Amino acid sequence: MFKRFGSKTDMLQEVPCTIRFLDDVEPLQVNFQKSVSGQWLIDHVCTHLNLVEKDYFGLRYVDEDKQRHWLDPKRPAFRQLKGTKPMVLCFRVKFYPPDPMKVKEEITRYFLFLQLRRDLHHGRLLCYPPDGNLLAAYIIQSELGDYDPEDHKAGYVSDFRLFPTTKQTKEVEQRVEELHKTMGGQVPADAESNFLKKACTIETYGVDPHVVRDRKDTHMYLGATHQGIVTFEGNKRKHFYTWATIQKVSYDGKMFLVQIVNTPGAVQTEDEDTIVINNKRTKFVVGFKCPTTAACRHLWKCAVEQQQFFTLSASSQAPRLKAGGGLFHRASKFRLSGRCQREVLADSDSIRRETPKLFRSASFTSGSRSRPNSVVKKTNTLPHNRSPEPETVKSEGENQDSQDETANSIPLEISGDQLDDTILEEPEVSISTGNAPYDPEQTTVLTADDASDLEAKIRDAEKEREEWRNPGLTNHVNEVPASKDEADSTAVPPGVAEEVATLVDSDIPTKTRRGAGCCKILTVSFILSFILLLAVILFVMEATVDNDFLGEVQGRPEVVDFKEHYYSPARNYMVDKVGFLFKT
Fold first, then answer.
1. Residue 556 pLDDT > 60, yes or no?
2. Confidence (pLDDT) at 439
3. Burial classification of residue 111, based on how many CB atoms lie within 10 Å of its CB (0-12 exposed, 13-18 middle, 19 or more buried)
4. Is the predicted pLDDT of residue 70 greater than 50, yes or no?
């Protein structure tokens, strides 16, 4: 018999893998059996780190197609990592808490601090220059302590890589030095807490960017956070949809689809033209195109997992979702595998243990510049009283860039600078590669309360409502208006109906889906009918059963003529080519 899952002995074999941490030093080598689940591997790493509040973290890897994935806790780890060479997983923050100060243990907040420090350095935590300078000063205060003119000579900040290379200029470093001088008295824990308090207020906090394109083929980055789904174009936020307004998230092929529902009085926009529907509940679909189907499936899983984690009151309420099914391929299924945020916070109150001791690591330092005497030598971030069982060794891929951030869903920029003499910096995703300053005020979200004095626009929208009911336009992308004044002063242009995609009531998307379903049914029906007709022809032409009705059918002139002029020549041709299919 065929062995689908392998023998028991084969499943007990151990497989080596490498775990990289947030400070990119001292990777952990782990051997696990083929039968263990992803949760076992996650628990093993968290035990090694002495981490109890582990629901915010996950292990990320890259498959053989260069597509990023989060390790699924419920599925066997070996099945997910099979084909990945080398087997490298990266310990990362998966769910960024809305308020980091509600996280109980300092060690958990410290790992969140390390993740945000990476995000700032690699351009993922995009923010105003003053905010970025303040965050960088907190990092310097955490690592070097109070400013000392004898130890901290001019230019000491240049030995730390705090921002992307193109944005860490001498002027920026001087400003960080000035801010560092004002932070005297803050111990590392205080500086890190202040860092977290500031970072969680930034628009790009918690954004894991995925490259997408809208219906105009504009290059954008899309991410799912605790607030909802957000997109960025260049250095500004383009769209923002809260989880309260998102009814459904799905995908079809390369198209990532978000179904938005607005209550009466809500305002949405299309480009710079404000569309107002105020008299009844509206529903429309927003579409974004991903580079590949695998990237779209990964984005869908990330989005629904973020939505369920931050919105559900209990993980038992998590529905089993399906999306992406087609005629010739299976639909993807997903269900929240762990606890939701409310359960995590409630369980944190019951933690009773001594505060774990930890060693703080130095920030990313430039190998091309000499380090000041005050810079602390980089050490591992593992807690002092971690479990002694796992052994940490240098991985075979230590001299290679980590594969965690080299997946195809994002165009990456690999830095040539080194963290130290042996380990290269792990490349990260940058929301924007330009040098223009970040200006989120250009994308202030317009709420229903801001939509005043819009009665005339409502009447205009009602007149063109029939033109908007076009079920063929399904890739509608809505842009958040720049400000309240812009929304109040913008009128609906006559040609907006041609550019607006599905902005209709719930019956229009239903008709669109029904049409697609009918096409699939007709295709399957045609194929089955053709196979049935072919079987009937073969039976009538070849059957030798002694039956009056069958003999009468075979003796009809049209059947005899069809067999003589068409069937027999085709049959003889097939017999000559593939003789074993028919017996003469």
1. yes
2. 52
3. buried
4. yes
Give the pLDDT band of residue 429 (cuts 50, 70, 90).
low
Dihedral angle, C-alpha 503, 504, 506, 512, nearest 10 °: -80
Helices (H), 223-269: none
CA 276 to chain centre: 31
Burial of 256-291, coded b for 16+ CB within 10 Å and e otherwise, reads bbbbbebeeebbbbbeebbbbbbeeebbbbbbbbbb
* Residue 119 identity (one-letter amino acid): D
Cα–Cα distance, 336 to 89 (Å, whole number): 21
> H or E stretch including 488?
helix 484-489
For 332-344, b/e burial (b = at least 16 CB within 10 A) is bebebbbbbbebb
- Rounded to whole angstroms, how far apart are CA atoms 579 and 584? 9
Per-residue confidence band for 380, with pLDDT thresholds at 50, 70 and 90? very low
Q: Over the stretch 31-48, which tens digit does the pLDDT of each residue have?
A: 999 999 999 999 999 999
Q: What are phi and psi of 24, to 5 degrees?
A: 60, 30
* Cα–Cα nearest to 446, from 201, 237, 199: 237
- Of 11-20, 172-181, 402-411, the range with the lowest mean pLDDT is 402-411
